Hints:
heterodimer, A: mainly beta, 2 domains, elongated, B: alpha/beta, TIM Barrel, 8-stranded parallel sheet, two-stranded antiparallel ribbon, 33% helix
Amino acid sequence: MPNFDLNRAPLRELNRTLHALRPDTNESHWTVTGPDGRHAIAAGLDAPISVEIDGNVGYYCAGMNKHASVVINGNAGVGVAENMMSGFVHVRGDASQAAGATAHGGLLVVDGNAGARCGISMKGIDIVVKGSIGHMSAFMAQAGTLTVLGDAGEALGDSLYEARLFVRGSVRSLGADCIEKEMRDEHREQLHGKLKAAGLAGEIDPSEFKRYGSARRLYHFHVDNAGAY
Amino acid sequence: MAETPKDPRDLPRTKPRFSATYTPDVMSEIRRAAATGIYDIRGAGAKRPLPHFDDLLFLGASISRYPLEGYRERCGTEVVLGNRFASKPITLKTPVTIAGMSFGSLSGQAKEALGRGATLAGTSTTTGDGGMTQEERGHSQTLVYQYLPSRYGMNPDDLRRADAIEVVIGQGAKPGGGGMLLGQKITERVAGMRCLPPGIDQRSACRHPDWTGPDDLEIKIEELREITDGEKPIYVKVGASRPYYDTALAAKSGADVVVLDGMQGGTAATQDVFIEHVGIPTLAAIRPAVQALRDLGLHRKVQLVVSGGIRSGADVAKVLALGADAVAIGTAALIALGDNDPRWEAEYQALGTTAGAYDDWHEGNDPAGITTQRPELASRLDPVLAGRRLANYLAVMTLEAQTIARACGKSHLHNLEPEDLVALTIEAAAMAGVPLAGTEWVPGKTGF
């Protein structure tokens, strides 16, 4: 199992090495030590490898990830897994703002809490936060699911499109055009699948969640809705 | 005592007088607003009269300086962009590049034509909000990939396929504003690229979702470099409003290239009030931006690309003389493709406008087949012929700029300098920082 110590070699060398790995590489599991809050660790991966980072990471860890599995044994800074396309990112601690921002696919699991704007502008990613999320989460969220076992902050789902939001705890307030929606069997089934993917099957009852989504009143600009903006 | 006519109609009358404040244009807008309850949205850039490059003149060589021989002595035009940090900077044959315009706002044929024309001319073209299309990548030898707040269509494969990356903070038509692409143009293909339901109005955010401020921008640029192994030049594009500080902060954040877009720069769809009342003219933005780079010791190390109302080789030469490294054209490129061509006058009339004034680009009914997603209109534009027209136009602009540069005795366009210029108006002299013609007076700098 290759190990890369960021206290001994520069970040660019780590990322360049990981980028050069082919999909059929034998070096499929890597560990990274000494992250010390550095930014853009394991950003731009494009192969089905796994990378385990021991410690706290800075901004944009696993940014634009494709195929890879990245585990962070610590906290993550702003924009963890931003614009992820596929793969899996697991934050064992807390995540800062904009976790999973604009991401198109893959699964992001945060064991702790996530800060403001979690899932902002998300485009297909599945996010599971075991703790709570901050304000303006899922702002302009377009597609995918955001599952929160704890509470959500102010203005959840403001101006969102077709993303589905599942919250087990309280919601401080809903943003413009975001409403609570009926939780039907199909939604419980979908939620069960997301919880299972996050390793929570059997531990959490999907019926404890409420579902939120777009009222679709702002899909076409109309002056009578100006007060909503 | 004068005799009073019996019929008052025989009295001399003051002729009807229009207000300079409430002009017919102003009154028509008030009536339109009152009837609809919504602001006017349109494409293109500022239409109001502004101090511009027409207000500058070159001082050709004579006894004190000697010119270069036209058609004989070389006047270089090539430009290298991105050699500050990127390991693979781009080299262009001409400093006239094509500005970012999206597939979605433009038809696929128009994007292809831009790529073809730019490639023939040896220059770059740029994606827009909505991502990169296969046609665009395939027909563009050098393609700049825009990284926008919406991140529509953003993916790392395209990032790696690009030749440079342009982080868009703003644009000259609407510094501080996002955008809206009306549902008429959100076809299934456009919607699919943007992960949106077809037919809805698509909003583009005005701020990036995962960073705020210059310190974060530096980290974002670092991420983009990491993802691309440090190969790609990274541009930062700003709308001209506070060019000194924005340029300084972009450079401080690690940009290889700063793109500065003045208020005459076009947009696909923005409120008219925004276009006409926010931002500053291109002419006024260049010198402060150049000064910011000089103050940082980065002039010619961080390249400056200027856009917004550049129409001719004379404009190109003037922008470069003021200290920029290259220019970008958008509206002018669309005109070269065939936008607003009088051949479609009957159809422009049917839309309630006329050739030369058509700016409802957001509605998707462009008779020229450029700002539309309607297949029957888009098919009117032959991308090969339109690309050829664009290449011709770019060649003319380059030749014109060379002609002027040689007349000023310069062996490269980048050797043009502010001392080659004078201004026709006090406003232009102040904004460009060059003397009023026939004087040594630079308003705000030297005594009168």
